[in-house]
Known about the structure:
This protein has helices spanning 12-17, 34-43, 49-65, 96-99, 105-119, 132-140, 171-180, 235-245, 262-272, 301-320, 328-338, 370-377, 406-414, 432-440, and strands at residues 6-10, 29-33, 74-75, 82-86, 124-128, 144-146, 163-166, 182-184, 198-203, 206-213, 218-221, 251-256, 279-284, 342-346, 358-362, 385-390, 420-425. The protein is an alpha/beta fold. It has two domains: 6-146, Rossmann fold, CATH 3.40.50.1010; 240-440, 3-Layer(aba) Sandwich (Rossmann fold), CATH 3.40.50. A hairpin with a 6-residue loop joins strand 3 and strand 4. Helix 8 (235-245) packs parallel to helix 9 and helix 12 packs across helix 13.
Amino acid sequence: MPKKKKIFVLDTSVLLHDHQSITNFVNNDVVVPITVLEELDKFKIGNDTKNFSAREVIRFIDKLSGSHSLQDWIPLGDGLGKFKVVMEGAPVSFNAEDIYARGKNDHKIINAALHTKELNAGKEVILVTKDINLRIKAKALGLKSEDYLTGRVSNDNIQPSSVRVIEEIESDEIRHLFTKGHIEENGILGDQKTANGYYILKNGNSSSLAVYNSFLDRIERVEKEFVYGIKPKNAEQAFALNALMNDNVKLVALQGVAGTGKTLLALAASLEQNKKYQQIILARPIVPLSNKEIGFLPGDANDKISPYMEPLWDNLKFIKSQFGENEKKHKAISELEENGKILITPLAFIRGRSLSNIMFIIDEAQNLTPHEIKTIITRAGENTKIVFTGDVHQIDTPYLDENSNGLAYLVDRLKGQPLFAHIKLEKGERSELANLANDLL
């Protein structure tokens, strides 16, 4: 028996999270309240991600409507349902504006969903929103409401360990790995074999750090080596540097709590390889404090963004401090800065750029949506390496969580791909105090 069609009512947060969301409800029908169009109109101006998404949604709806009225049901295409824009209406059952407050857009959207439910008796009407409080308010009035689930990662896959320990390896194999630098795989890894998978191979008191090279079907030794004055302090950092320095790996995700060295390692590796790329770009999304735009902050554009970029500059200063002012590598960093070969910038400032011959490091990637992650990667040209760093437990944007952020989505979808490597850094190396806070607070 075919399933009954549902009607999904989308709020603004869903459309800004994924501007293609209207087409992601299979054969069910989709409704957008008129109030959402008003909010999209307010968001359409600017260079932030939400401004870009707002413009894309408006263009999509305009193209979709064609010669139709948006108050008519418009077919979305093969295998999909229909779409329309609905007015707020005056629901008979509950009026959200009477119960909560008048003039607030969230309550108008709830009313539009309640009115849609009354006009479509027998059909299940569901309000879809990334706003947790709006979901609660809708449910309190008997309206079914849920999160937008496309791109959401299951709890089991949020933070998979990237390092596997394999015991009882033949001592000859470990000895050959040390002397030759690699051994044939020959089933040693069993069902744990994965492209760019990282392993600690053990035999009694003997052990070796290793990575599986899927291109050559062999296990290669990983050593703890200095990279531009930075030496890995644990196995995970050694694995991270291995991925960052591997030309065959074009996309790297470094995941871990504060103080594990994610950004520092990525920057050190980029400096070590600076002659391979025309430019090194370090970027991070700006998440406004207290949900206020940076326009509220005093000063010119540089003054406004400076506090957000300071952690990236701190990492660069730390690497420079490893060398004396007259040392070659210290001077090299200064020259790269002066020549614009190192660029530290908000992510929004480089939207639309071609990403060819670039080492591109995106910090705080957990504050990006899955669609933003995809947009960045699909811009990669020849000889470009992209590195995402972040901690999925430290999300600063109101409509993302551990399951729906772009970094978790990236790791979940690309694990095991030959061009991709993921390293989860679990041991903090900033200080004993920082480790204590991460462990106990």
